Amino acid sequence: MANIEKRTTQEGQTTYRVKVRLKGYPSQTATFERLTDARKWAQQTETAIREGRHFKTTEAKRHTLGEMIDRYVRDIMPHKPKNRTNRTLHLNWWKNEVGKYTLADITPAIIAEHRDKLAKAMTNRGGLRSPSTVVRYMAALSHAFTIAVKEWGWLDDSPMRKVSKPKEPRGRVRFLSDDERSRLLAACKASESPYLYITVVLALSTGGRRMEVLGLRWQDVDLARGIITLHETKNGDRRILPLAGHALELMKEHAKIRHVNCDLVFPGKNFKDPVDVRTPWENALKRAEITDFKWHDLRHSCASYLAMNGASLAEIAEILGHKTLQMVKRYAHLSDAHVSKVVANMNEKIFGV
């Protein structure tokens, strides 16, 4: 309900102070010089609250989007070390574009306008941003809004909830054929880098991401039990990579030439950072005459081999460290034979045929 209070200053000027109170919502106040404006604002505010539209609180009028991003980068980002550089880059883009707007003035329409601008603008490399990249830009801003709503009380709701995300393409599935795998491993074994062959074998056999493999430390490798423990992963969970067969034997041999003063399994020249195998990797691909293949496709290859050898989607998700089955459904067509076998076994058990 709205309450309008008439006030007169010492100079004789009349103003109207409006207070809107509705149960379950913070009260809203504003001051006007004309009674008609006060009544109009009260009516519009009450309607907006009842209809659940974005609610412009006093705090939202007091802070800009730039201030929100600055506080998020200062207070929240230090606790999110993973992908900090890219996330900060994405947030700074939003700050440069609409940072001067107050949070009360940031509408879904403004965000959607700049979402489309992101998708259409040329990058420094001369190409367009992919839908997946635009989604990451939006995700960074969305989380900043979520913190501003839940923890800081700067907003009652996030305008991001009403902005749709670009549709991302279906996940890429590129894996090595048996012939390609043989050629690539031979090229890696003949590489100028002493670490390329073993790191590629590890990626193929465990499904570990590039920096999960290259950034390994000996304290996380248990050769007796045949496991690698990843304490920091992309989704934040601890994950175990089983070591078996050729990969385990290679690691045991590699442990014999371990550097005493360096805990990195694959150290770079300065023994402080992991080795960079980008150039040796690209050279090996050229020698093996393999095209359209990236390092991350070694992870896809591992998942594909698991699917083709009878692993269920749940088992693949556990090995790769995915929290849901959505990311591994791309490999479902490779496990058709396994699914058929499961159904055949069930039918044999219940019907005895």
Supply the key terms.
single chain; 353 residues; mainly alpha; DNA polymerase, domain 1; hpI Integrase, Chain A; three-stranded antiparallel beta sheet; 14 helices
Could you characterize what this model shows?
With about 350 residues, the protein is mainly alpha-helical. The chain folds into 3 domains: about 1-55; about 60-160, Orthogonal Bundle (DNA polymerase, domain 1), CATH 1.10.150; about 180-345, hpI Integrase, Chain A, CATH 1.10.443. The protein has helices at about 35-50, 60, 65-75, 85-100, 110-120, 130-150, 180-190, 195-205, 210-215, 245-255, 280-290, 295-310, 315-320, 335-350, and strands at about 1-10, 15-20, 30, 220, 225-230, 240. The strands form 2 sheets. A 3-stranded antiparallel beta sheet has the order 1-2-3, covered by helices on one side. Strands 4-5-6 form a 3-stranded antiparallel beta sheet, with no helix packed on it. A hairpin with an 8-residue loop joins strand 5 (about 225-230) and strand 6 (about 240). Helix 3 (about 65-75) packs antiparallel against helix 4 (about 85-100) and helix 7 runs antiparallel to helix 8 (about 195-205). The N and C termini lie far apart (about 75 Å). The relative contact order is 0.07. The mean pLDDT is about 85.
